[in-house]
Amino acid sequence: MPAPRRIYLIDGSGYIFRAYYALPPLTRRDGTPTGAVAGFCNMLVKLLDEIEAAGGTGHLAVIFDRGKHTFRNDIYPQYKAHRPDPPKDLVPQFALIREATRAFNLPCIEQEEFEADDLIATYARLARDAGFEVIIVSSDKDLMQLIRDGVTMLDPIRARPITAKEVSERFGVAPEKVVDVQALAGDPTDNIPGVPGIGVRTAAELIATFGDLDSLLTHLDRITQPKRREALLAHAEDARLSRTLVRLREDVPVMADLEALRLAEPDAAVLMPFLEKMEFARLLHRFRERFPTFGRAAPPAAAAPPAHYQTITDTAALADVIAEARTRGVVAIAVMAEGTLEAVAVGIALALAPGRAAYVALRRHGDAMHELGTGAPAAAGSATDGALAALKPLLEDPAVLKVGHDIKAAVKLLAGVGIAVAPLDDVMLLSFILDAGRESHGVAELCQRQLGVAPPPLKDVVGSGRSAVGFAAVPLADATRYAAQVADLTGRLRGPLRQRLLVEHLVAAYETLERPLVPVLAAMERAGIRVDPDILRTLSQDFGARIAGLEAEIHGLAGHAFNIGSPKQLGEVLFDELRLEGGRRGKTGAYGTGADVLEALAAEGHALPARVLDWRQLTKLKSTYSDTLVNQINPRTGRVHTTYDQAGAATGRLASNDPNLQNIPVRTEEGRKIRRAFVAGPGMVLLSADYSQIELRLLAHMADIAGLKEAFAAGQDIHALTASQVFNVPVAGMDPAVRRSAKAINFGIIYGISPFGLARQLGIERKEAATYIAAYFERYPGIVDYMERTKALCREHGYVRTLFGRRCHLPGIRDRNPAARSFAERASINAPLQGSAADIIKRAMIRVPGALADKRLNGQMLLQVHDELILEVPEGEVEATARVLRSVMAGVAHLSVPLVVDVGTGANWGEAH
Question: Between the CA of residue 773 and those of 125, 334, 792, what are the distances in Å?
């Protein structure tokens, strides 16, 4: 006996809301919400799996509501009148869900004037009459009236059938009587009146007794309860109206016949691009496994690149490649280098078109560069060999765009051989502008995410775990072939990333903030800053002696020697032996001994934790700076050369690495001593230009706080003013400690500080700290409005924006974990301020070199440390340079408060700051 034909009728509207509430909010890179779409697709996949397990054949349709107005509104205008509007982030997903249905090659059915339930009822009748087994995929109670022989329901979440038995348990009657029960009970959700005082249970009893609604209303004299009888008598017409409203139409003139609903395999050419557009990586992978044809039909971007990589071994071949690059007007480059200053291996790869790249391998010994990887040395004393001489005009050609990933490294390296690479485009920075805080921007991750293929990890090629682009003891051709693949894939990335930049209106942020900063940072990194090794060695000796003294003091306070650097041993001394209060064990069983714990104990007057904090600070300064910096001085330049990371912090702040020169403490005497080791060259001075209280000024501007704006405009001491207003003390003769407390509040508010955090910082009770914060917000209520508005915008979009349009994504803003969500909310308050401050100083850095050149001044930027720029300036140009710095830095943003720049000079960084 042949198996019965099945038809699945999916309640698409029900699916949407189930999907929306089943998953946490998700967003696409462009900010489009996609959580409901993802849940909807997951539910479809689950059902398709079940259908395949049952034989894989049949018919299926997904049926949606078309609009709010249906024939029921003509009968009863108040029908569904009280239904709330759908959530804002769900509305843009309605169209995407219909697109998803079509991408899965499933019929997507909706019809004016009728609800999805009416269409389901009609198709159920037609299919049953045609001999189909009908399965309605929904748990909606309104559809339960359709259950009968040959028609069942399937709960899509619990994956369990809903039969006449379940209907009877819910309504107290068989499915064919559900309409009568609903007519009596009404439905406040849909604004169906029913009969007041009659619930589902009472209605079921009445219908069971009288058989149906008409018989009940005809024999109201048999109702013994007076109130019930009166209610039924008064609302008989309401009951009849309600029956009309709840009864589903089975005679809708449908547009598609049953054969049009035959289940078909999805078309990979439609489904794959949709899943990629929606960034549903797991679904994409799942469908490739489920349907092998999808893998064969995957889009070319996801296929492995053809390895048409050419090794250049003669000048004629190089000339051909250069000519083609000039014709195309764009070339992707990857440059790799490794070795000492005396012996450097260099690989330069040029990608001309997808899948096509050429690479040149060179080795340099002293001043000679071997030609084209052949081993033949160039002329003695030549700084640039024939290959580099040929490449120089191309790499400097303003009509040829050079594309790279972290292209600053190539710009810096090639500058060392006299090549000024320009103009340029950086796919890492494109990705950063688009997805800061949401995605990583490494070349492998970016290629995998955008193209579906990535170069192998560099360590697999070079036998080294280094993350920087470089290679060690491997054949030069192998390393440059790797560079060719990187260049090829980098060239492919530019198009889709640039397209997104345009669509998402982020061109200005990239073009005015990140791209023009690359050559500026490259020049700063090459310049480096001079460091006096003798000062560092003296500091190391001093720190070492003080550390030894602290160790002896700590051991004396403990009563015995122990390893101060061991959190486990320190915790046992503090909480088991000395029995100090506040000890908490972690998952490993050891006590927590972080800085917050020790600071709290030290604030209570305990000497040992206070000395441990001093010991930790000195050991960190010694190991991180005074010991290490000596070894990081370039022997050829006498300087340390940090590397700036443009794609690190989501707010856009630059990070400094190898060495990190941004974390040297500035508020402690020991930190200032470290800064004194950074010195100016002969005949030069260091000049520090620092934005004053920039984030507080941005808060006044962005939150539109009249009191703060007036204070800044008048040049008042903002911390003293805050102290006066919060603590009710006069500004004149104010205790410096009171001003410091106000300063902690001012800056703490920017970071969403809690009463607990402020209490710990000021060494006061939490209740007192809460009073201070409340007084602050009472004085500046606009700040609270700004905070709540910013958090709401972040929850809606998944990101916040800086003044200059940069996005800072904060995925945790919708996290189900309260702690993670709270952290993201605090970050959302600070990110627009910190991000805008980062944008402002970047704009200044971009303009400073040109402004100095216009005045024929010879100062050079060396360092950027958050809100501060460090320049090395000839002694005779200090005043002129300071004027230019103040003018440029104060003029890069037009705010409702003035930007103030503090300038200092000195023979070393400590004096200048």
Answer: 66, 53, 21
8 Å CB contact between 346 and 335 = yes
DSSP string, 717-764: -HHHHHHHHHHT--STT--HHHHHHHHHHHHHHHTT--HHHHHHHHT-
Q: What is the pTM of this model?
A: 0.66
pLDDT at 130 over 80: yes
C-beta of residue 12 within 8 angstroms of C-beta of residue 6: no
What architecture is domain 308-504? 2-Layer Sandwich (3.30)
Say if strands 59-63 and 108-109 run parallel, antiparallel, or are unpaired: parallel
Give the residues across from 361 on adjacent strands.
Answer: 347
Cβ atoms of 7 and 57 within 8 Å: the answer is: no
In the chain, where the domains are located: 6-261, 268-298, 308-504, 532-632, 694-830
pLDDT digits (tens, 9 = 90+) for 815-858: 777 777 888 888 899 899 999 999 999 999 999 999 999 999 99
CATH of domain 6-261: 3.40.50.1010
Percentage of residues in the chain with pLDDT exceeding 70?
90
Pairing of β 401-404 and β 330-339: parallel
Q: What confidence tens digit (pLDDT) does each residue in 444-479 have? A: 888 888 887 777 665 555 443 332 333 333 444 566
CATH of domain 694-830: 1.10.150.20
Superfamily of domain 532-632: Taq DNA Polymerase; Chain T, domain 4 (1.20.1060.10)
Q: Which of 55-59, 135-139, 166-170, 846-850 has the highest mean pLDDT?
A: 846-850
